[in-house]
Amino acid sequence: MIAQLEIPVETVTEAAVAARAAGTRVVLNAAPARDLPAELLDAVDLLVVNEVEAQALTGRGRDEPAALLSVVPRAVLTLGDAGAWYVDRDGTAAHVPAFPVRAVDSTAAGDAFTGALAVAWAEGRDLVEATRWACAAGAACVRRVGASVSLPHRVDIDTLAG
Fold first, then answer.
1. Which of these, 62, 71, 83, 87, lies nearest to 30 by C-alpha position?
2. What is the mean pLDDT of each run of 10 residues along the chain (162 residues)?
3. Tell me, what's the pLDDT at 150?
4. Alpha helix positions (H), 5-126
5. Fewest beta carbons less than 10 Å away: which of 99, 118, 140, 147?
6. How many CB atoms lie within 10 A of CB 43?
C-alpha cells in the first residue's frame, strides 16, 4: 500500500493499520509535512520524505537521514538534484546520486519517485537499487511540464537508469 498525506491523517492511519494487519507492506510519503500519530508510524514499513518533512518529523533534516530511524524501520530522504539517502535499522546507509537532467517542472517528482520506489521494491529489488530506480523516475518526471502528464513510463526510467 502506498499512502500520502493529502487526505485526512485519520484515514491514512486506518488504511495503514489495516494493510499491515493483512500482511501488506506500507509505504508512506509523508507529504505534506505534519505531525503523525504513533499508530501510523508503527504501521509504516518504508517512509519517504524530503528534507522539510524530515525536519518536521525528527527535528533534523538533510544532514542526518538516520534520524528517521527513530520513527520507522526504513526511510528514504529525497534531496532533489542532490539525490536521495536510503537508511534502515539493519545499518544500511547509502547515498544515491541524482541523474543529471534539465528540470522544468518538479510538481509530480515526489509522486513519480515514490511510485517507482514501491514498484521496484515489490518486484524484489533491494532498497538501495530501488532508490536508484526511483531517482531515475523523479529525474525523468521533471523533464516535462505538468503533473500527471509528466509521470514517466517504465522505458523512460530504464533509459535513465541504464
1. 71
2. 96 98 97 94 98 93 91 96 97 97 92 97 98 97 90 94 92
3. 87
4. 9-21, 38-43, 51-58, 109-122
5. 147
6. 24
Strands 84-88 and 46-50: unpaired
Alpha carbon of residue 96 to chain centroid: 13
In the set 42, 45, 63, 111, the catalytic residue is: 111
AA identity, residue 134: A
Residue 33, all three cell numbers: 509535512
The H-or-E segment that residue 131 falls in is helix 127-142
Q: How much is the pLDDT for 20?
A: 97
- Grid cell locating 63: 544532514
Q: Which fold has domain 2-161?
A: UDP-N-acetylmuramoyl-L-alanine:D-glutamate ligase (3.40.1190)
Q: Give domain limits for the chain.
A: 2-161
**Residue pair 69/54 in contact by the 8 Å Cβ criterion:** no
Its pTM surpasses 0.90: yes
Collapse the DSSP code of 125 into the 3-class scheme (helix H, G, I; strand E, B; otherwise coil) and give the result: coil
Is 63 one of the annotated active-site residues of the chain?
A: no
- C-alpha to C-alpha distance for 124 and 39, rounded to whole angstroms: 27
- What is the structure's pLDDT at 137? 97
